[in-house]
Amino acid sequence: MAQAYTRMINKMKVNIWVAVIVLLIGLWDLYTAYNRYQKKKMTKKDVKDNLVKGTIGALTTLPSSGKAGVISFTILGVVFTITGIILFFMI
User: Fold this and answer.
1) Full pLDDT tens readout for the chain, 91 residues
2) Exposure pattern of 74-91 as b/e (b: 16+ CB <10 Å)?
3) Which residues contact 22 (CB under 8 A, 6 or more apart)?
4) pTM for this prediction
5) Count of CB atoms within 10 A of residue 47's CB?
6) CA distances from 30 to 26, 39, 55, 59, 82 (A)
7) SS3 state at 13
8) How many CB atoms lie within 10 A of CB 23?
9) Which CA distances in Å does 79 have to 13, 35, 84?
10) Are 74 and 27 in contact (CB under 8 A)?
């Protein structure tokens, strides 16, 4: 059974444009995640300005949806980038 899957995978050919597009989408997702992380990152000035709530209060004021967006774009970027690299080897 495993030999049948190996033969099937060896017969599969991938167009180079598919590999390029998947790789570019992965890199774009990583770029977007990095930019979202930079926008949401807390600076020392933000913590000092919010002395009433303190450091923990200032850090918890970040919206959780922003954190989820960064995490989701990072996961998708890694998956698409690795898939694009694997597709290049299948050409």
Assistant:
1) 667 666 766 677 788 999 999 999 999 999 999 988 887 665 555 555 555 555 555 555 555 566 788 889 999 999 999 999 999 888 7
2) bebbeebbeebeebeeee
3) 80, 83, 84, 87
4) 0.65
5) 16
6) 6, 14, 29, 24, 12
7) coil
8) 19
9) 20, 18, 9
10) no
Tokens of 58: 């200032």
- Residue 65 region by backbone torsions, left for phi larger than 0, else alpha for psi between -120 and 50, else beta: alpha
Residue 64 has what pLDDT? 57
Mark residue 54 as left, alpha or beta (left: phi above 0; alpha: psi -120 to 50; beta: remaining): left
Residue appearing with tokens 């989820």: 68
End-to-end Cα, the chain, rounded Å: 24
Q: Which tokens sit at 69?
A: 């967006």
